[in-house]
Amino acid sequence: MEDVQMDLRRSLALIRKLDDKSNQVISDVDAKLRQLQHTAADSSVRATLIDDISRLFHDWKVLRLNTVSEAQYLEDTVVCATHKAQYEILKHDPDAFEQHKRAPIVSRHETEPTRAGSARKKKQQSEKRKGGINDVHKTVRRSEFRQRRKLTMPKEEPEPTYCICNRPSFGQMIACEDPKCKIEWYHYSCMGIRKAPKGDWYCPDCLARQQKEQQEKTSNRRSMRTRR
User: Fold this and answer.
1) Domain that holds residue 134
2) Distance of CA 206 to the CA centre of its chain
3) Within this chain, do residues 90 and 141 fall inside the same structural domain, yes or no?
4) How far apart are CA 86 and CA 83, in angstroms?
5) Where does Zn(2+) 2 bind (predicted)?
6) CB 71 within 8 A of CB 61
7) pLDDT of 152-207, one tens digit each?
8) Pair 6, 94 in one domain
9) Which residues are part of a known binding site for Zn(2+)?
10) 75 and 30 in one domain?
C-alpha cells in the first residue's frame, strides 16, 4: 500500500503541475489576443502573433490530454488498490474467494432498468386503482410485448474478467509467466506497472509461491545432507 500511496501522490502532483501549465498557457493566449486586437491587419507582427496563438493552443491541447490521461490512471489505481485489498482479505477465506471470482460485474447502467421498472410498476398500480381500464389493457399489451421480445432477443454472453480486481480487459495488460498462475492476466494499473518490464514477469502470488517452494527445496536438501 505504501507504493500505491507514493504513486497517488506522484499522480496528484503531476496533475497539479499540468493544470498550472495549462492555466499559464491560457493566460499567454489571452495576452496574445489582446495584442492582436491592437495590431494593424497588414502588419508582419500580426502573422507572428497568429502563429504564436496557434502554437500555444496546440500546447494547451497536449497538456489537457496528458491531464486527462493521468487522471484516468489515478482513478484506475484507486479502484485496483481497493480490489487488491479486498482480494488479500478474501484469500484467507477460500469459499468467499471462489464466490468473488464467479460473481458477475454489474454496472450502474445495468441497475437503472430495475429502478425504472419499479417506477413503471408503481404507476401501473396507481392507474389500476383509479379505474383506468383502457390504460391497464395497454399496460398488459406492453408487458406481453416485452416478454416476447425477451424470448426472441439473443442473450449476451458475460464479458470475461481478469486480474485481482475481477474486471474486464482495459488499458495495458500483462501476463504472468508462471504456468500455475490462477489468474494469468493483470492490468498494469492494478500491479503498479507504468512501463513494460524487461524479461519474464510474475505476479506477486506466484512469486511468493515460488520463493516458498524454493525455500522448501533448500530445507529438504539440507535435511538430507544432515541425515547422511
Assistant:
1) 108-152
2) 24
3) no
4) 5
5) 176, 181, 203, 206
6) no
7) 555 566 778 888 888 888 888 899 999 999 889 998 878 878 788 888 899 888 88
8) yes
9) 163, 165, 176, 181, 187, 190, 203, 206
10) yes
